[in-house]
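REQUEST ID: PR-0412
SUBMITTED BY: lab tech R.K.
PRIORITY: routine
TASK: structure prediction, single protein chain
INPUT:
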Amino acid sequence: MTELWYTRCPVPTASSIAIAKGWLEDEFAADGIRVASLLESGKHAVRESHFDHGQPNSFRQGGNIPPIWARSRGSDVRLIGLSQVEYFQGVLSMPDSGIVRPADLKGKRLALPRRINDQIDFQRAGTLRGFIAALRDGGLTENDVEFVDLEIAEPYIVPEDDAHEGQLFGARANRRFQTADLVALIRGEVDAIFASGGRGVDFQALLGANVVFDMGGHADLSVRTNNIVPLALTVSGDLLDRRPDLVARYVATVLVGARWARSHPSETRRLTALEAGVAEEWIELAHPGLHDALEPSLAPNLLEAIESQKTFLRERGFIHDDFDLDTWVAPGPLEEAHRLVEAGFGRGWSPGDEG
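STATUS: complete
OUTPUT:
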């Protein structure tokens, strides 16, 4: 074993903290193991492992739709943790539209992106689930609205560039993620869009938009469940089978990052803003209490949310083959990681008063 690979979405994760602090590199350096971002390969097929989990010896933390899709296609990817961060998820309309509550969506045009050059259209799936939640809240069904397809040819992951450090999604990719939705709304081609995270808060401020439905602020987790609620930590199955000790140490490093965040709220917001490519001010609005919510678990309610997401994706045709959740989840790494941390793991490179 000479390399471990990682990737993460531009969302709030403890992995991002461990990566930014260099703790993953420090933990495995003595073993002669290099810890590398998928971006470092410079190869498009390797970068696509962010979605299909095809790269051996790799970890991923981020949205739950891609790993569910990958597992449904037969990829040997294992679910080893879930985290639930408060997350702005809202349906937005223009300020003068008269659309201010879900019931007002009746007869309206809703933007539904279709990414034609990505393996899994997680944006379309997440947007559709968000709209359905809003419609149900307003006593409406999908037959009461018109979904407007917005075809997007630009792939989410840039095939090649000159940078081989950091995360896959730089400032340009993050900024362009919902260009089609936003332009269609401004031009009056649609009446409402779905947006989330710091980007969603940014859009609301830019347009003075109405928040027609605040999905992220709903008390019911079954309503909040979407691609980014809960976030999924996954690992290559072969790596887990061969070297469970390395997987446990990786997860323990993520736990250290999550626990460090609890006493470093300001720096946690700053690092998250850098990951998401948004102003730090938006992080506090989009993810209240972020610093206390990064630790992964396999809590029953989060597993129920993943089962719900899997069912939704299958019913809507985003995945075709079902699989058993119990056989997908691997609790061992998280259990061992907790034991390692309680025994003092990471004290040599993660001083509690840093930052």
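NOTES: Residues 28 and 150 are 44 Å apart (CA to CA).
REVIEWED BY: pending
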